[in-house]
Amino acid sequence: MSCNLAVAAALFFASDPVASALPESPAVQAPAEASAATGASALASEPAFAALVQEAQRLKAVTDGWIVPDILGDAHFVHMPAFQTFKTQIAALAAADMNGHLELKQRGTDSDLTCIMRGIAEDMPQKLAQLEEAAPGASRKMALEELSYLLNDNAEVILAPALAH
Questions:
Q1: Inter-residue contact 113 to 104 (CB < 8 Å)
Q2: N or C: which end of the chain has fewer CB within 10 A?
């Protein structure tokens, strides 16, 4: 299965229509707690992967917090120190995701997650660039939403129980 198809399939099967209909809690659940509570993958309890989940959830919360009229309309948004810090954090998360991909590959893990981790690592800088280039208003809102979805997927694919083939 190609990596792109694996990413699409995993994201489709990882989504929970009931959970997505509920309002999001402002608190970020710790990966180990989420793993135990939802039957998530054992991988989510490993420190490096738990840290990926936690960071993706934290950056998603930041991204979602920027989907407000003041930020959406601010012509200088991408020049703000907070955004510059965010860029560095997104780049670090993308690198950590690629390291996660390489770790799984080195283990000989034969799962779609290996491809998905690589895909997310490659997509994150592209989504960030789209956000930087987006004009204030609707374009910026769309770019923030797309980055938010990717960050959410980043956490969910690690937390999702492995599917039997």
A1: yes
A2: C
Query: Tokens in use for 101?
Result: 């991909």
Which residues have a Cβ under 8 Å from the Cβ of 3 and sit 6 or more positions away?
115, 116, 118, 119
Distance CA 117, CA 65 (A): 25
In this predicted model, what pLDDT tens digit does every residue of 1-25 receive, in sequence order?
A: 445 434 444 443 344 332 332 234 3
Residue 143 CA, chain-centre distance (Å), reads 14
Helices (H), strands (E): how many in the chain? 8, 0
Residue 131 and residue 39 in contact, taking contact as beta carbons nearer than 8 Å: no
The rounded distance, in Å, linking the Cα atoms of 120 and 56 is 11
Tokens 């809102």 belong to which residue? Answer: 141
CA-CA distances (angstroms) from residue 128 to 1, 33, 58, 79? Answer: 27, 29, 16, 14
The two most distant CA atoms of the chain are separated, in Å, by 49
Task: Name the DSSP class of 1.
Answer: -
In angstroms, the CA 29 to CA 54 distance is: 8
d(CA 49, CA 20) in angstroms, rounded, equals 23
